[in-house]
Write a structure and sequence with these properties.
The protein has one domain: Rossmann fold (3-Layer(aba) Sandwich). Helix content is 36%, strand content 13%. It is built from 13 helices and 10 strands. The protein has helices at 2-14, 47-59, 74-79, 86-98, 116-127, 157-168, 173-178, 191-197, 201-204, 213-220, 261-264, 270-275, 293-303; strands at residues 30-31, 34-37, 65-67, 109-114, 133-139, 224-230, 246-248, 253-255, 279-284, 307-308. A 6-stranded parallel sheet has the order 3-2-4-5-6-9, with helices on both faces. A two-stranded antiparallel sheet has the order 1-10. The protein is globular. The structure holds 2-acetamido-2-deoxy-beta-D-glucopyranose (3 copies). One 2-acetamido-2-deoxy-beta-D-glucopyranose is lined by residues 127, 212, 214. Keywords: Disulfide bond, Glycoprotein, Hydrolase, Signal. One of its GO terms (molecular function) is palmitoyl-(protein) hydrolase activity. Its EC number is 3.1.2.22. InterPro entries: AB_hydrolase_fold, Palm_thioest.
């Protein structure tokens, strides 16, 4: 860990004076740090997240991996996956990363989002992106929202406690600022309420009349935006949300991203990325969050292996 502090400290101290150098190829240089934002009900310090971290380090030795957390206390971090204002949570993460001794001095970072962590990392890119994300990979994300709330598992006290409130009162200010999944609820048959009251998703998807140009600019800085959906996904309804497709639950009609206004008018820069081969649609076997070691290793090798010459000035990185 100390090594990173030193290397990146050299980088930032000399950014203004060191002549521009190309990105190093081959095995020299340092891999970009990697963020992992876990999903609903999970916590940053769980064993499973540590295993993913170890795989990332194995795939690209020297990677500094940072599991995103909303509190250093793992149980508080877990609670924040259900309860809280997502806008405030993203802002908290923005501040945490921008002031992190290692991450804040990295020329760029990579990002891996699990389930709802996928759209939250996208919000980080759109709103803050400091340090900037090079490649964003999401697994089973709800980029186009959820149109149904999932039944709680037995004994899930936190979930059970909220379920009743969620169902009838999705669009109340209280629910929209308190209950995390409600903030990415989106039913295509009730877009009116969604556009008016959605606390989070309608904004980061730039679906309202007034568009935020910063969101588009920041998305265009992504080198790769890779979206995985699970073939046997049943937790995320509709599963195509992971690809920004719209799905009518009544008629079972699926409208692909490329046929949506969001893409045609390029509200998020997705079309721009797609036309440059930088938007990647992937499918993988199994149900929600079936992550095999092989799948993760392949992903890390393919998308997170780029190494940077640490002497490259921050501004000169071609993202
Ligand atoms: C657009 O988003 C940026 C980043 O979150 C924010 O600072 C800015 O105020 C927003 N602009 C508008 C017009 O809402
Ligand atoms: C969804 O399908 C139903 C049944 O065909 C239709 O009545 C409804 O208008 C559709 N919703 C949207 C948003 O297209
Ligand atoms: C996925 O679903 C198909 C069809 O229902 C089934 O045949 C297959 O075994 C499932 N695969 C996994 C990995 O769950």
């Amino acid at each position: 860990m100390r090594l990173f502090v030193l290397l990146y400290a050299v980088l930032s101290a000399n950014a203004a004076t060191i002549p521009q150098r190309p990105l190093s190829s081959g095995n020299s240089g340092t891999p970009l740090p990697l963020l992992i934002w876990h999903g609903l009900g999970d916590r940053y310090d769980r064993e499973g997240i540590k295993e993913v971290k170890e795989l990332a380090e194995k795939a690209n030795p020297g990677t500094f991996v940072y599991p995103v957390r909303l509190s250093e206390d793992g149980s508080a971090d877990q609670r924040a996956t259900f309860v809280g204002n997502v806008n405030e949570q993203v802002e908290y993460v923005c501040k945490d990363l921008a002031s992190h001794p290692i991450l804040s001095t990295a020329p760029a970072i990579n990002a891996l989002g699990f389930s709802q962590g996928g759209q939250f990392l996208r919000a980080y890119v759109e709103r803050c992106n400091n340090p900037p994300v090079a490649s964003l990979v999401t697994f089973g994300a709800q980029h186009n929202g959820i149109a149904e709330f999932q039944a709680c598992k037995d004994g899930d006290w936190l979930c059970n406690g909220w379920e009743g409130i969620l169902k009838g009162q999705t669009w109340t200010n209280f629910v929209q600022t308190t209950l995390v999944p409600a903030q990415y609820f989106r039913n295509p048959d009730d877009l009116e309420n969604y556009l008016e009251y959605s606390n989070f998703l309608a904004d980061i998807n730039n679906e309202r009349t007034k568009k935020n140009a910063t969101y588009v600019e920041n998305m265009k800085k992504l080198e790769k935006f890779v979206m995985y959906v699970f073939k046997n996904e049943t937790t995320v309804v509709p599963k195509w949300s992971g690809w920004f497709d719209e799905f009518n639950l009544t008629s079972a009609k699926r409208t692909k991203l490329q046929d949506r206004t969001l893409y045609k008018e390029d509200w998020l820069g997705l079309r721009w990325l797609d036309e440059r081969g930088r938007l990647v649609f992937k499918e993988t076997e199994g149900r929600h969050m079936t992550l095999t070691d092989k799948l993760l290793m392949d992903t890390f090798t393919e998308y997170f292996s780029k190494r940077v010459d640490v002497l490259v000035a921050k501004e000169s990185l071609d993202l």
